[in-house]
Amino acid sequence: MDGNGRWAQRRGYPRAYGHVRGASRVKAIVQEADRLGVKALTLYAFSTENWGRPEPELKVLWKLLKRFLKKEEAALARENVRLRVIGEVERLGKDVREILDPAIERLSKNTGIQLTFAVSYGSRRELAFAMRRIAEEVAAGRLPAEEVTEERIQSYLWTADLGELSDVDLVIRTSGEQRVSNFLLWQAAYAEFVFPEICWPDFEPLHLVSAVEEFGRRDRRFGAVKSSHSIGEAPGLKTSYPALEERESIHATGTEGFNRDLE
């Protein structure tokens, strides 16, 4: 979900307008991912670094998140989507939490595609938090040091309740940027990466199909035995879209619709 602000600025629009158009792409991509059989989808909506954005831009981002939840929760429920949020959620404003927390609870029993928003998220922060908790357990004598395994560490990460789906198979970063930018560093250790040149969301469902097909052509050896599979032989695909520094959007025809889009 990269490049919204840049997309808007290139066209002479306010950065916030790019976020409005970027948010409009989420529903179609979630639906297409579900249709493709993707089991878990993580959207990088807001990084820990993004707190340094101008206050007016932050207000637009939170307003868009609240609007999405109000507008789409019923549809997510009908489509059996389970919603999660990872990150320092405690930093979010009361007005956001009052809408976000009940929505997560109401969708918590759903068994379809697992949709995760990474909000106020940074992977280094996540790992530091996990290490502190483990260190406290070891210091208190509740956890022997020799039991600090990869599996144990993973159980302390914010993605732990995804179970085996927490390991990411495919990371898609739009706008042509080719870096990880502090996103799911542990979980994406063996992920495949696709970097479309188009911006989010010039990113349409057909581009998701193309990325998943590219994933299916990759030879994933995990450092050991050669393996080969087709798309149809890759169940449980976990896909992530980093938003990172900026997010991207499409279909803006002019700023005259900006205020209406925020209502």
Structural overview:
The protein has nine helices and six strands; from the N terminus they run αααβαβαβααββαβα. The protein has a single domain, classed as Decaprenyl diphosphate synthase-like (Undecaprenyl pyrophosphate synthetase). A six-stranded parallel β-sheet has the order 2-3-1-6-4-5, sandwiched between helices. The C terminus is likely disordered. With 263 residues, it is α/β, with parallel strands linked by helices. It is globular and about 55 Å long. The longest helix is centred in the first third of the chain and has 24 residues. Helix 4 packs parallel to helix 5.
How is this fold's topology laid out?
Layout: H1 4-10, H2 15-23, H3 26-36, E1 40-47, H4 55-78, E2 82-86, H5 94-106, E3 114-121, H6 123-139, H7 150-155, E4 170-172, E5 192-194, H8 205-217, E6 238-241, H9 258-262
Helix pairs in contact: 1-2, 2-4, 4-5
